[in-house]
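User: quick one, fold this
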Amino acid sequence: MAHPTVAFQGERGSFSEEAAYKLLGPRIRVQPCETFAATFESVVRGRTKFCLVPIENTLAGSVHENYDHLVNYEFPIVGETSVRIVHNLIVLKGVSFSGIRRVFSHPVALNQCLDFFARNPQIERVPFYDTAGSVKMIAEEKLRDAAAIASAVAAEIYGARILRKSIEDDRRNFTRFFLLRTPVYARKHPVRAAAGAPWKTSLVFSMRNIPGALFKALAVFALRDLNLTKIESRPLRGKPWEYLFYVDFLGRADEPNVRNALNHLGEIADFLRVLGSYPKGA
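Assistant:
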């Protein structure tokens, strides 16, 4: 595949950009987008072949908006990866720690560095739309009383410097990302993996709100020894107090036991869609 273009939310230097390079290699082109919806729209409008979105973080939990987009935009998941999130305190060159009065970053990043702010109560936390975007902003506006929390790559891209490395509260901080592309492109360029590599399948379904319905749905996987790695529920629009259930499990959609499980689930579910089968990410 020659230099595909990948859309992601945020500015250059974001953790999403790091995930894109990890999945597709260093020769890709990247298309930063302002919102998650805009990343999907870039594929709809043919501006990019792929979009990449975060789906969950080990500390902050699931990115609910992107679960909803998986249903609204019918793009298959073709890959996943996880990125270790390292939050760095970044300033303009020549700025000292004593001069910092405020720190800009995405609200999730700020909340993952609470110990740093507790040790430095003189510094104000200022929410911003993006981690890398906060570095870009202080560089463009030449703010010398401010810092940003973002990746090391963002500091390099915008000509800033890292004043404090790895200021996050918990270093076991990882974000999982999904890579998606159009169904037509996915059929022409099927996902490949090394022989014997594990696969995962993601799907979404809904059940009638009756006793035992979810138990019966999950039993189709247990009966075939399929290992569930994730289950997430989201409200089903137009049906108050009913839900869509998102499930990830180990296995490939064309394997006999997986096909049997999906056929069984299709018989009892009100709605079922396979979101993708893809190599299990590192």
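User: anything notable?
Assistant: The two ends are 21 Å apart (CA to CA).
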